[in-house]
Amino acid sequence: MLLTRVDSGLDGVVVADTAMSEVDGEAGRLIVRGHAIEELTATRGFEGVAALLWEGYAEGGGDETTVREGLAAARVKTFVEVPKLLAATRGLNPVEALRVGIGMLPDSAKTPHHFLVCGAMPVFLAALLNAEKSMAPIAPDPSLSTAQDLLRMIRGQRAGTVFEKALDTYLATITDHGFNASTFTARVVASTHAGLISSVLAALCALKGPLHGGAPGPVLDMLDEIGEVSRAEAWFDDAFAKGTTLMGFGHRIYKVRDPRADVLKDAVAKLPATAGRLAYASAVEQGAIAALRRHKPGRPLDTNVEYYTALLLEALEIPRSAFTALFAVGRTAGWCAHIFEQEKGGRIIRPQSNYVGPRPA
Questions:
Q1: Which residues belong to CATH 1.10.230.10 in the chain?
Q2: Is residue 337 within a helix (H) or strand (E), and if so which, with residue range?
Q3: pTM (2 decimals)?
Q4: Which residue is catalytic, options 164, 306, 314, 341?
């Protein structure tokens, strides 16, 4: 017998209490452990946000220095796995290859698992991107932060401070965001006590789906196809006539502008040689919003995090094929926090379903 009927996709259903983050879609506000995302990213980098999320739950929680040192040591430790990873992932895209890499991490490792997996992600991604360019993997430098070292391993040398800061801001901005599909997947698996590595692997598999983690690359494809601002209105009208989805706009939760969009737009504005591209993208953005108002009146669709993510990662010279994988580098810290919270106080997640099939005669 059906006890409670809910909408497909669990819209509006509260499944747990959490101290990690609150997404207020009506007000356009994101709070991470008591801090507005705008204030948080202005005062803390990626390691600082990870320390905040893990506070009270895991080693390094509340101590940014311990987190930075723990992640640096884990990068060094996991670099020895790179030859095996590259041999096993020829022909795979970066997310598929990261899936293999996480699956190689042992549940029995002495290194705390949250450090291990969060340290492995940038090392594996950099090695995979270098392999695509027929370059040898570059060993991590434990004296650097995650963002600094990731850019160095990708480029072969230190990037300028402004570029490192931009990547650090990005990783901090996207670390946690409520019970999205991948985070909820991590909590479902964690609720069975399968362990942190398995839970993170499941979350990555959920992120791989194009409805969750695949939008930043197509934003750039859209901007490239429009070409110039004067063509934007006609392009949008044609897109709506064909039923094309506008990438970088609309969000399942936000009914107004995604607050992360402005954080990342500000980060792009600080990068050299981006003024022209940013001005063009800003003008196209306004054209897209106007087109949404014309073609979808009454629907609250606005700019989401993916729009300016695309410009930021383009400016950092990250290949479009790696955008989702790079997102996972930052979000893994948030997945770990939710796994800790689920393991500490949650029961196994086992919802009911409404049977609509045939019954015995």
A1: 216-315
A2: helix 323-345
A3: 0.95
A4: 306
